[in-house]
Design brief:
Distance between the termini: 63 Å
CATH architecture: 3-Layer(aba) Sandwich
Number of strands: 12
CATH superfamily: PAC-like subunit
CATH topology: Rossmann fold
Helix content: 25-40%
Number of domains: 1
Shape: globular
Order of helices and strands: EEHEHEEEEEHEEEHEHHH
CATH class: Alpha Beta
Number of helices: 7
């Protein structure tokens, strides 16, 4: 492992191959998100990494590092990982956990500083937007920051609503450091993982990048979740329904 490519307020960012990282980043796009509403940011980034077969290029280490390790399709998983590919001019930061509250501010700023240091041109941040605020048939809202020059085919988030958590910090530092970014906020169920919302995000990102990324698995996952929820609701209704005969009272 080389020395950190960037150190910022206790956050250290390491690359496994500096040349490949630079080739992946030069003039390209940064994508990241967190486990917020519906886990949309996390599901989206992990899906993109797997479907595009992106290579792990580095790690982000914080002062108060989450104490876990796991095993994934690309080997041992660390809490905060950097993936990319020169083919797509793309870096994806996958946050398997949410940074400690004591690290979040420095972590968010370090990501933006890394993007600028590597020569990335734009960012796409992904989160979930509470489905209770949906208007009509809208699929998502979005938010430009840092002088993002393009327009997306959806309304910008209302002025009286807020993005919160580490995603909000990314947006703030994108604006402060003038790193152009679009934050994609598909409507999502807040209380459970929402792969359908993640599929919306992936479809939007595919269009923005001009890259085909299948969402079939996410749609199927969403279908299974909906079926499971419907089954639970039916069981609840059956359990609370009054019996209609003596025999039902005997056997229920």
């Amino acid at each position: 492992m080389n020395d950190p490519i960037l150190t910022h307020r206790g956050v250290r960012i390491y690359t496994l191959d500096l040349k490949e990282t630079l080739d992946s980043a030069n003039g390209g796009t940064l994508i990241t998100g967190f486990k917020g509403f519906g886990m949309v940011g996390y599901i989206t980034t992990t899906h993109i990494v797997e479907k595009l077969s992106l290579k792990r290029l580095g790690y982000i280490v914080t002062r108060y590092m989450p104490e876990f390790a796991s095993y994934g399709y690309n080997g041992i998983l660390a809490p905060f990982e950097i993936y990319g590919s020169p083919r797509y001019n793309l870096l994806v930061i996958v946050n398997h956990d949410i940074p400690s509250e004591r690290d979040r501010d420095a972590y968010a700023e370090a990501i933006i500083l890394l993007a600028k240091k590597l020569g990335l041109k734009t960012g796409i941040f992904v989160g979930g937007f509470d489905a209770r605020f949906r208007q009509g048939e809208e699929r998502y809202r979005w938010l430009p920051s840092g002088g993002y020059p393009e327009r997306l085919d959806a309304p910008i988030m209302d002025k009286d609503l807020y993005v919160v958590g580490p995603l909000a910090l990314l947006i703030i530092y994108s604006e402060i450091h003038r790193f152009p970014a679009a934050t994609i906020l598909p409507y999502a169920e807040a209380a459970r993982p929402d792969p359908a919302a993640a599929a919306t995000a992936v479809e939007i990102i595919s269009k923005m990048l001009g890259v085909s990324i299948s969402v079939d698995e996410l749609i199927e996952m969403a279908r299974r979740i909906e079926e499971a929820i419907e089954k639970v609701e039916q069981q609840k209704e059956a359990a609370t329904a009054p019996p209609s005969s003596a025999s039902e009272r005997l056997y229920t």
